[in-house]
C-alpha cells in the first residue's frame, strides 16, 4: 500500500474536507498478533487449521485494560504454547520519540517518521469487517522472537483453537503459505524490518 502523500501546506478547507469514519466501541474489535520468529534458525511459527484448512499467524482480541503488545504476546503464547518476547527492530514509525532518545538515531528525510531507532512499536495494522460478528476489526501486528526447539506447553489454547497445529517453517516461505494475503504482507514487513536492523534473513 502506498503511503499517504505528505501535504504540509494544506488549507483549513482541505482539512475539514477530510473523509473520516466513526465506529462506536461496541461496533469495533481490537485484535493483536505476532510474527513469531526464531532469528537464529530463520524460521517462523505459523498455525495450520486442520478443519478449515487455513494457514495464518497467531492473533486474538485484547483484554480490557491490556497493552497492545502484551495482548499480542499473550495471544501468541496461548495459540502456540511457546513463549515469545518482543523483538526490537528499527521499525520506521510515526510514534513520537521522547526527548531522552535525541542523539540515539539519525533523523531521516521525513522528520515525521522515526527510523534507525530500535523499538517494539507496531509493525503493521490490518483492518476488515469481522465475518463472525460484523464488527469493524483492527489487527495490530508485532515482531516477536522465540526458540523453534522449545516444546509447546499443553493446555494453553481456547476450546475453539484446539484444531490448530503449530508449525515452524522457513522464514522465506512463510508469506507464500498464508491463506490470507495480508498475513503474507505482515510477514514480509517484519522480515524487511529485520534486514534493516542488521539481521541476515
Can you tell me about this structure?
By secondary structure, the chain is an alpha+beta fold. It is 20% helix and 24% strand. The chain is built from four helices and eight strands; from the N terminus they run H-E-E-E-E-H-E-E-E-E-H-H. The protein has helices at residues 12-16, 68-80, 171-177, 181-196, and strands at residues 28-38, 43-49, 55-56, 59-61, 85-86, 124-129, 136-145, 164-170. Strands 1, 2, 3, 4, 5, 6, 7 and 8 form an eight-stranded mixed sheet that branches. A hairpin with a 5-residue loop joins strand 2 (43-49) and strand 3. It starts with 11 loop residues before the first helix and ends in a 5-residue tail after the last helix. This is Nudix hydrolase domain-containing protein. InterPro entries: NUDIX_hydrolase-like_dom_sf, NUDIX_hydrolase_CS, NUDIX_hydrolase_dom, Nudix_hydrolase_domain. GO terms for molecular function: bis(5'-nucleosyl)-tetraphosphatase (asymmetrical) activity.
Which stretches are low in confidence, meaning pLDDT under 50 for 5 or more residues running?
Answer: none
Sheet of most strands:
8 strands, mixed
SS field, number of helical segments: 4
Distance between the termini: 23 Å
Structural class category:
alpha+beta
Report the strand count. 8
Strand content: 15-25%
Shape: globular
Give the proportion of residues in helices.
10-25%
C-alpha Rg (nearest Å): 18 Å
Listing every helix as H and every strand as E from the N terminus to the C terminus, the arrangement reads HEEEEHEEEEHH
Mean pLDDT: 93
InterPro entries: NUDIX_hydrolase-like_dom_sf (IPR015797), NUDIX_hydrolase_CS (IPR020084), NUDIX_hydrolase_dom (IPR000086), Nudix_hydrolase_domain (IPR051325)
Pfam families: NUDIX
Domain Nudix hydrolase: 27-191
GO molecular function, one term: bis(5'-nucleosyl)-tetraphosphatase (asymmetrical) activity
Amino acid at each position: 500500500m502506498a503511503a499517504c502523500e505528505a501535504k504540509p501546506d494544506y488549507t483549513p478547507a482541505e482539512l475539514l474536507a477530510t473523509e473520516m469514519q466513526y465506529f462506536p466501541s461496541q461496533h469495533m474489535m481490537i485484535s493483536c498478533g505476532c510474527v513469531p520468529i526464531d532469528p537464529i534458525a530463520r524460521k517462523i511459527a505459523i498455525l495450520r487449521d486442520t478443519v478449515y484448512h487455513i494457514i495464518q499467524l497467531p492473533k486474538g482480541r485484547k483484554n480490557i485494560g491490556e497493552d497492545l503488545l502484551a495482548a499480542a504476546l499473550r495471544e501468541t503464547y496461548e495459540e502456540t504454547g511457546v513463549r515469545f518476547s518482543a523483538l526490537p527492530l528499527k521499525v520506521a514509525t510515526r510514534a513520537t520519540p521522547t526527548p531522552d532518545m535525541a542523539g540515539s538515531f539519525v533523523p531521516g528525510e521525513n522528520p515525521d517518521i522515526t527510523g534507525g531507532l530500535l523499538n517494539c512499536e507496531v509493525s503493521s495494522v490490518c483492518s476488515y469487517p469481522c465475518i463472525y460478528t460484523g464488527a469493524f476489526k483492527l489487527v495490530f501486528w508485532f515482531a516477536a522472537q522465540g526458540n523453534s526447539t522449545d516444546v509447546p506447553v499443553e493446555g494453553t489454547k481456547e476450546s475453539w483453537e484446539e484444531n490448530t497445529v503449530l508449525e515452524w517453517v522457513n522464514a522465506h516461505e512463510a508469506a507464500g503459505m498464508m491463506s490470507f494475503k495480508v498475513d503474507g504482507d505482515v510477514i514480509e514487513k517484519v522480515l524487511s524490518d529485520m534486514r534493516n536492523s542488521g539481521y541476515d534473513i
